[in-house]
From TrEMBL, chains A, B:
It comes from Winogradskya consettensis. It holds the Pfam family HxlR. Residues 10-108 form the HTH hxlR-type domain. GO terms for molecular function: DNA binding. Keywords: DNA-binding, Transcription, Transcription regulation. InterPro entries: HTH_HxlR (IPR002577), WH-like_DNA-bd_sf (IPR036388), WH_DNA-bd_sf (IPR036390). This is Transcriptional regulator. Gene3D superfamilies: Winged helix-like DNA-binding domain superfamily/Winged helix DNA-binding domain.
Length: 118, 118
DNA sequence: CGGCATCCCCCGGGATACTG
DNA sequence: CAGTATCCCGGGGGATGCCG
């Protein structure tokens, strides 16, 4: 198959969009040690609205990156976990966060220098 | 410094946003072999509007990831190149694209399966 | 050639309230 | 508890037109 991310209509662009989505990255990273419930994800990921959490989880499920397991109990319980495909993303997500935490200082310095220019 | 990407107001979130931006990834990758002119970038990156190209380049420059060099000639010539900080991103960008090109098939299959479910 | 500036539209996404 | 439904707003981002 022809996969050129520079091409406008290449589906790999959509993959970039998904991975690029900040919520996706945070969700995948949160699930690295095992499954979590909906509420646990919501607490863990500071600032995500229920709408975006659900929406992103549905997208990840559709893309075969997470599984959604409903337990028939009261109160309801829904677990989310990574698939094999999802686990293959962990290295990337970790690298992303590592870079961010390692170079955030440089970036902030560069911004300050840029903004204080005539 | 406290760097927790799960925290709402952590600046590393902004780094995630920048790297997550599809245009940023494509620009950084395009510059891996050396500097390019504005028009060359526009041609290389299919589907980007002038506005977004300029805007993204400004953001990358502000964040210390690319340099912008204006040559005083007619017609004008502006070269963009990666900084050291920008070059440190190359591994990440390549990994991102590699993953996309490697797993795009799995993702598309998962989507089809998901969409054709009752 | 390499941009800003402006207009304008559309929808991403937050807040809130309600259900199985 | 785990969502859906609804409303609503800001701004992302395309198109177009003008400068140095």
């Amino acid at each position: 198959m022809e996969t050129d991310v520079y091409a406008k209509n290449c589906p790999s662009r959509q993959v970039l969009d998904r991975i690029g989505d900040a919520w996706s990255v945070l969700i995948v990273s949160s699930l690295k040690d095992g499954s979590l419930r909906y509420t646990e994800l919501a607490q863990r990921i500071n600032g995500v609205s229920p709408k975006m959490l659900t929406q992103t989880l549905r997208g990840l499920e559709r893309d075969g990156i997470v599984t959604r397991t409903v337990h028939a109990v009261v109160p309801p319980r829904v677990d989310y976990a990574l698939t094999t495909l999802g686990r293959s993303l962990l290295g990337l997500c970790n690298a992303l966060q590592d870079w961010a935490e390692l170079h955030i200082g440089d970036v902030l310095d560069a911004r300050e220098a840029y903004d204080s220019r005539p």
